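hey m, so remember when u said the tokens were messed up on ur end? i reran from scratch. heres the input so u can diff it against urs
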Amino acid sequence: MAGTPRLVVVSAGLSQPSSTRLLADRLAEATRRRLAEAGREAAPRVVELRGLATEIAGHLVTGFPAPALREALEAVSGAEGLIVVTPVFAASYSGLFKSFFDLVEPDALAGTPVLIAATGGTPRHSLVLDHALRPLFTHLHATVVPTGVYAAAEDWGGGGDALTPTLPVRVDRAAGELAALLPERSRDAGDGAEQEVVPFAERLAALRRNSRA
């Protein structure tokens, strides 16, 4: 087995349980499965922003993170792959979601593969992926995978239509794209072996193959 990549999942759901966390868990499991098919391991770590809301507000006004928030920020900044999921508020990401990523150090996510996802009550808000989430993580210099996943209320258990694949199909496709971009060896491997450097062109080709699968 190659080194386990540091995969972090950020869920901004406000209720408990929430469809946002449910989608986050499905994406994490699909990514873990795709990596396992390639003979690799992953143990995704979940960061629930709901429990950090007070600390996020405190950091914004004081400039100092409390211990739990500091640990979450360090996990995200040190991730080798991210899955981020937000509920839709006013046709955009939630304030809690944006406030958390406002606290991530500039360039901490540079080059980090990110899978973006969102949940909402109606399919009309699916454009949030491209008009809000994708620009945010492009601004942070992250590498956003081509397929974003939006889940409306009707997607849970729905059969899709002629133009829209079912939610499980979209989840699997996005997970395959993220898995293809994760490093072959984690920076935490620590076994003294020389890390194999895979040219970006090869990784991009693999991502395209997964997108067509």
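this time it looks ok to me. Residues 190-197 have pLDDT under 50 and may be disordered. if urs says something different then somethings off w ur setup not the seq
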